[in-house]
Design goal:
CATH class of the largest domain: Alpha Beta
CATH architecture of the largest domain: Alpha-Beta Horseshoe
Strand order of the largest sheet: 2-1-3-4-5-6-7
Structural class: alpha/beta
Distance between the termini: 46 Å
Largest sheet: 7 strands, mixed
């Protein structure tokens, strides 16, 4: 088919580019949330407290691993570059010098969750400055939602792959770029033609994840192939806490109103009307590949009960045969029955569970989209204790519909009673964090804020990009509610976090030193927030001088105001790898 000369970088593949170890076909790059974060003083506060990564959000999406494996099996040479981790690990690391070394056919950037928008756009600009002839493609949920605005306003980006499974479209795009052809034939692809945006419809929506497995030996071989361990780190401190993940499904049967991965949002943004699962044999094979090489914790992403009892039971039967000794974390969206926990106990000797009630207030919880009451939650906690669960994490949130300041603080008293009644013999660990920094695009609240009592401050991608450059996390927030403005959300967040920290100290969940450290940091940030608010009323010169002084103090607080990262960690053995098997794989390229 004849090529259209108006399409960007639509050239035949003429000879092999520099291969060496620079990834000649595709380089997948994960950008920091804010590109120049090392030169900025920002009060990030608690926005990343209950995830393993820092406020730079250096954890790349699981899709990078499945993309790399899928394309490698088709003969494409793919490399992952976690630019965010490299920038975090060394202030002397120069992103431009690093990116100059690559000469691929295509650069890929993830814009999955919206907090990455500033960093992604800046990295795209830098790439286009260094390599003007090499096209750039974006993918992910946020890229899918804002695909038209991206192509209209950011000329550095040539393509956007829409949808939640980019493997097949990306393979087709590489085929066109290397061999000639017309990008209009690539499924799910939006692009520009003569400066006009052509919107690709999302026609390719896989109903099974079987063709896109997580292949951990492949990732280990890639590390050895490129001699670049840190590029494959999922987050900065992964080496000290080598947790692995198993993706059980894509999509959701629930519709939590602020979530971009909810059933309604997935239908709206990526045309997914049903959950895509993996068969139990595929899941078991993935887990087998983990335990052959790693002794670290395994996290099963997605509620394993979404597919019903039969699917869950088949999954447990397949996994039970592996005799898994690793710590395992399983998440649930609704409290499961005792029979589910019995299955977990018979499958995993070291099992842990987590659930997000969001609020102790049943009305607030239901308004948010979690349709269960406290009686069901408390029965689940008791069943988990009886069946031998080692740890149960409870995640609560501030910034919810119908939630005011007093309601947020009521979570602390509820958790105190819950631990007193059900905490014996099991680590029952509550967390609280704000809905921050953004309500997800495509969620029910983003689409109809008034209906749910929200006021959105930003609508466009550009507004969100600018928001990420704010000096404080409350100025980043893209919403307020009719029950709490941003300052009240911050106040409720800090006060409830201090209350939970005191509770954890009282209950012996964590050391007095750790508890006091969290409380000191939360109180410091509360004070800084007040001072920043006062600055807004000062004359410009005085405001500028005072802000400079405050930014020096801010360096004493680098997130972690709700908890310390160690609170999230499950136990890790002294030797977290199966050393013999790992060395054999690295030396021979073959598994044990």
């Amino acid at each position: 088919m004849a090529r259209n000369k108006d399409l960007p970088c639509q050239r035949p593949f003429s000879g092999a580019p520099e291969r060496k170890s620079m990834g000649s076909d595709l380089v997948l790059i994960h950008a920091p949330s804010v590109f120049d974060f090392r030169d900025r003083s920002t009060l990030y506060g608690p926005i990343s407290d209950v995830i393993p990564s820092t406020p730079v959000f250096e954890m790349y999406p699981v899709g990078f691993a499945t993309l790399s494996n899928y394309l490698d099996n088709l003969g494409y040479e793919v490399r992952i570059l976690n630019l965010a981790v490299k920038m975090l690990r060394s202030r002397n690391f120069d992103p431009e010098s690093c990116l100059r070394k690559f000469k691929p056919v295509l650069f890929g950037l993830d814009l999955h969750w919206l907090p990455h928008v500033q960093g992604v756009i800046e990295v795209a600009k830098l790439l286009k400055h260094i390599h003007p002839e090499i096209p750039i493609v974006l993918g992910g949920l946020s890229a899918s939602y804002f695909h038209r605005e991206i192509l209209e306003n950011y000329k550095e980006v040539d393509y956007v792959i829409r949808g939640d499974c980019a493997e097949e479209p990306l393979a087709e795009l590489l085929k066109v770029l290397k061999g000639g052809g017309d990008v209009s034939e690539v499924p799910n692809l939006s692009y520009r033609r003569s400066d006009q945006v052509v919107e690709g419809t999302i026609d390719l929506v896989p109903n099974s994840l079987n063709p896109f497995p997580l292949n951990y030996p492949h990732m280990i071989r890639q590390v050895h192939r490129y001699w670049d361990l840190t590029s494959y780190f999922p987050f900065k401190k992964w080496f000290f806490y080598p947790i692995t993940a198993v993706l059980t499904c894509k999509g959701c049967i629930h519709s939590c109103i602020t979530c971009g991965g909810s059933a309604s949002a997935m239908k709206r943004v990526v045309n997914r009307s049903q959950v895509a699962y993996k068969d139990h044999e595929v899941l078991a094979k993935e887990v087998a590949s983990i335990i052959k090489y790693m002794r670290g914790p395994i996290f099963f992403l997605g509620d394993c009960m979404q597919g019903g009892w039969e699917r869950f039971s088949e999954m447990m039967n397949a996994l039970r045969k592996l005799r898994i000794k690793n710590e395992v974390m399983v998440e649930f969206f609704l409290p499961p029955g005792r029979d589910v926990l019995d299955e977990l106990a018979s499958t995993f000797p070291r099992f842990n569970v987590e659930i997000s009630p969001e609020s102790h207030d049943e009305q607030v919880r239901r308004s948010f989209g979690r349709p269960f009451d406290n009686a069901a939650l408390e029965q689940f906690v008791e069943d988990a204790r009886i069946t031998g669960c080692r740890r149960l994490d409870l995640f609560f949130m501030t910034g919810l519909p119908g939630q005011d300041y007093n309601s947020a603080l009521g979570t602390v008293d509820y958790c105190r009673d819950l631990i007193a009644e059900h905490g014996s013999g099991m680590r029952l660990v509550p967390f609280i964090s704000p809905l921050a920094p953004f309500v997800d695009p495509g969620s029910d609240v983003f689409e109809s804020p008034d209906e749910h009592g929200y006021r959105l401050r930003f609508r466009s991608l550009e507004d969100h990009r600018k928001a990420m450059l704010a000096h404080t996390w409350t100025d980043m927030l893209n919403y307020e509610t009719q029950w709490m403005d941003r300052d009240t959300i911050a106040q409720a967040t800090y006060d409830s976090a201090i209350g939970l920290s005191l509770l954890k100290g009282e209950q012996g969940l964590f050391s007095k030193k750790r508890t006091n450290a969290v409380i000191r940091r939360a109180r410091l940030e509360k004070d800084l927030m007040k001072k920043f608010n006062l600055l807004k009323s000062l004359p410009f010169v005085e405001r500028k001088k005072s802000a400079a002084a405050l930014r020096k103090v801010m360096r004493r607080s680098n997130g972690g105001s709700m908890c310390q990262k160690e609170e999230l960690n499950m136990p890790v053995s002294i030797m977290p790898v199966q050393l013999v098997n790992l060395l054999r794989l690295l030396l021979t390229g073959k598994g044990a």
